[in-house]
Amino acid sequence: MTAIKDAADAFLAHKRIAVTGVSRTPGSHGSNVVYQRLRERGYEAFAINPNAESVEGGPAYPSLAAVPGGVEAVIIGTRPDRALDTVKEAESLGIKDVWMHRGPGQGSVDDAAAAWGREHGMAVIDGGCPCMFGPTADGGHKFMCSFMKLTGNVPRQV
């Protein structure tokens, strides 16, 4: 097991990160916040939305495989029942780092998808938000992180 801070640091060391579930409606979804934050902090962030050609002022791609040049990591921000397909696609493309976004509530975490990824040699963060850690963090997200570690929505180890 790896401490969440160390896992988050390793994940955020990547510079080409895909974010699934970015909505066509700005501000309507947590994935949009993560996508924008990554872009603001100098990451090459790629929005994955099979129902849009552009979101938040940038291009959207229908799948991980459609991103030109590929990505190093993926943040899953869709419904949990879509997580396993995303993890399997990531593994087929050689992507070894996956983060299943979770704020209050279920978020995008799917236990079966996390287990499948780990069984296939992937590093899977199953909870929390990248905006809670490292160079993407802000005060509000750091506060939420402390609280959500108590509720289990941010794992202490992955």
TrEMBL record:
PANTHER family: COA-BINDING DOMAIN-CONTAINING PROTEIN, CYTOPLASMIC PROTEIN-RELATED. Pfam families: CoA_binding_2 (PF13380). Transmembrane segments: none annotated. Gene3D superfamilies: NAD(P)-binding Rossmann-like Domain (3.40.50.720). It comes from the Bacteria. This is CoA-binding protein. Residues 11-102 form the CoA-binding domain.
